[in-house]
Amino acid sequence: MVIPSSVDQCGAHVMPLLYKGAQEVITVHNTSGLALHGNPSDAHSWFPGYTWTIALCAACESNIGWLFRADKRNLLPKSFWGVRISQTKDGTQSAKDRSSV
Fold first, then answer.
1. Each residue of 52-83: pLDDT tens digit?
2. Exposed, middle or buried by CB within 10 Å (0-12, 13-18, 19+), for 93?
3. Is there a contact between 82 and 68 (Cβ–Cβ < 8 Å)?
4. So what's the pLDDT on residue 22?
5. Has domain 7-26+53-87 been given CATH number 2.170.150.20?
6. Does the pLDDT of residue 6 top 90, yes or no?
7. With contact defined as beta carbons under 8 Å apart, do 2 and 86 qualify?
8. What's the alpha-carbon Rg for the chain, to the nearest Å?
9. What's the average model confidence in pLDDT over 77-98?
10. CA dist 25 to 73, 94, 96, Å?
11. Euclidean distance between CA atoms 47 and 6, whole angstroms
């Protein structure tokens, strides 16, 4: 599970998939607990000029999303994470809510 920081820039996107319809993705500048799998690819990148690498949960190896890296020097940001919304958790849970778990 990834909990994006509220201080990072964040965007939400609905990305088309060839076989499943659409994928809801948030983009964040930084995250933790992820491990990259495979080599960067520019094939079918949702973000032109960026390569992508699969990002797995370092603990359970579930597919969490992708690391996107600029393929051209003039692109900013140089890198960002695309995280599947279905793999996120709200980190704003109140103390009362936490004590009832």
1. 999 999 999 999 999 999 998 888 889 999 88
2. exposed
3. yes
4. 63
5. yes
6. no
7. no
8. 15
9. 70
10. 25, 25, 30
11. 23
Q: In 3D, which of 40, 27, 21 has the Cα closest to residue 84? A: 27
Residues 27-38 pLDDT 10s? 888 889 999 999
> Token digits for 87?
């793999």
Residue 89 · residue 1 · CB < 8 Å? yes
Q: Which sequence spans correspond to the domains of the chain?
A: 7-26+53-87
| 92 CB-side CA count, 13 A | 4
Q: Is 61 exposed, middle or buried (0-12, 13-18, 19+ CB in 10 A)?
A: exposed
